[in-house]
Amino acid sequence: MNKILLIIQREYLVRVRNKTFILSTILTPLLFAGLITTVTIISVKNIDHEKIAVIDHTGTMEGNIENTKALSFEFPKGVDSTNYIAKGYSALLYTPGGGNNGYKLISKKQLGMVAESQLEDKINETLENQLLKSKYNVDVKDLEAERKRIGSAKIDQTYQEGSEVKRGNSGLAYGIGYGSGFLIYITLLIYGMMVMRGVTEEKTNRIAEVIISSVKPFQLMIGKIIGIGAVGLTQFLIWIILLVGLTSAATALLPHETLQQAQESTQQMPGGGSMSAASGAANGFADFTNTLSQANWFLIIGCFLFYFLFGYLFYASLFAAVGSTVNEDAQDAQSLQLPITMPIIVSIIIMMNAITNPSGSLATWASLIPFCSPIVMMARIPFGVPGTVPYWQLLLSMTLLVGGFLFTTWVSAKIYRTGILMYGKKATWKEMLKWAFRSN
After folding, report:
1. What gap in Å lies between CA 321 and CA 195, rounded to an integer?
2. Are 262 and 251 in contact, with CB atoms under 8 Å apart?
3. CA distance readout (Å), 165 to 168, 171, 295, 382, 384
4. Which of 25, 78, 208, 329 has the smallest C-beta neighbourhood within 10 Å, fewest atoms?
5. What is the rounded CA–CA span in Å between residue 56 and residue 31?
6. Is 207 exposed, middle or buried (0-12, 13-18, 19+ CB in 10 A)?
7. Are 351 and 181 a contacting pair, CB within 8 Å?
8. What is the pLDDT of residues 340-377, one digit of tens each?
9. Element at 104 (helix H, strand E)
């Protein structure tokens, strides 16, 4: 046990004292926060304003269509497709067929996505308003006022969790499930690869031969896996602290007008939703925070730590086994690691189904299989335990993952013991399986 602790200490200290680790740990959140801030400022300051000349034979547009921050509409005389650029217009909008659906746009350059979306919205909005006024004698302003008075429909969702009745929020559960599943996915790939590279480097540099003379191969493998896992956990904790601090600082330092304009720009993007929808979302913020406070954070965080830890241990042992069989050829490493990375990639694909249909058969079965459960089960848990995820499924998933970790560690240790001292020969999966299941 003391030897394993010494290996863990060595693996941890060597990596956290490395300049590359220190720089990447500090610079990554700084770059991320800086990128978000820069994009926010640019999205507000760098909006091209297009001046559009309108030739409207129907008479429905003039005096009715409203300007936006990206578009302004004018109805000049004597402007056509041959001289609109010379008269200072970016584009020409007209109705050659005379019908409401026959609007066409001629421009000297292709409009941006925001400008094009706003143009379509404003034309449709103007036509709808004119139709309501001419056919049904409905004033649009009165209609909007009535809509605001009535408000939008709200669904007060509750669900049974044990003996308690709790308020539900599918959007919140979706976000937590997606975020936690994706974080575990990134962890498995990044730090699993780090374990494999560490084992391969020690083997190619002949360091492993010296260490093996003092400790057992199993002790070396477990110590390396836990040590690198501790490095990863340390890095993630620092990242979370820095990202929260930097994001809060950026939000506090940026002018309120800039943040508001950035939000409006996002809402005006295709699929960004209307301002009325945004207003409805803002009105429901109190309900959202109330639902947030009712989430079972103790269970969610506890399950996340469990699946984070055992998911990493499960896959890291496999990556260590592959790393022990690789020599200096990087292509060999890529071909051998593919069967390990494929289940991780498949898991993130299944996760996308699980967060939209957490009780489906695909999500249920995948959350029980150790190769997929760290990612898929974490996508289901925020939707409720035992409502969506019965206790027996959660316990069975955890038991199978722990059992899978013990089995893969046993198999990987036998492969590691042979592979770490093998040089000059390309290992295959067939040979590795022989090493794993042969008797001592």
Report:
1. 10
2. no
3. 9, 18, 12, 15, 11
4. 78
5. 49
6. exposed
7. yes
8. 999 999 999 999 999 999 999 999 999 999 999 999 99
9. strand 104-107
Q: Taking a C-beta distance cutoff of 8 angstroms, is the pair 364, 358 a contact?
A: no
Residue 397, number of CB atoms within 10 A of its CB: 27
Report in angstroms the alpha-carbon separations of 72 from 68, 268, 296, 339. 6, 16, 50, 57
Q: Give the three-class secondary structure for 181.
A: helix
Class of the CATH-defined domain 50-141: alpha beta
Token output for 348: 């993130």
Using a 10 angstrom Cβ sphere, with 0-12 exposed, 13-18 middle and 19 or more buried, the burial of residue 3 is middle
CA distance 224 to 5: 10
181-232: pLDDT as tens digits: 998 999 899 889 888 888 888 777 777 777 777 888 788 888 888 998 898 8
The beta strands (E) that lie in 229-299 are given as none
Task: Check residue 93 and report its DSSP letter.
Answer: E
| Residue 23, amino acid | L
Residues in CB range of 1: below 8 A, 6 or more apart: none
Give the C-alpha separation, 24 to 14, whole Å: 15
First to last CA, the chain: 23
DSSP 393-417: HHHHHHHHHHHHHHHHHHHHHHHHH
CA distances from 395 to 27, 296, 390 (A): 40, 17, 9
Confidence class of residue 138 from pLDDT cuts 50, 70 and 90? confident
* CA dist., res. 366 & res. 376, Å (int): 7
The tokens for 263 are 């939000």
Query: Domain limits of the chain?
Result: 2-33+170-274+294-437, 50-141
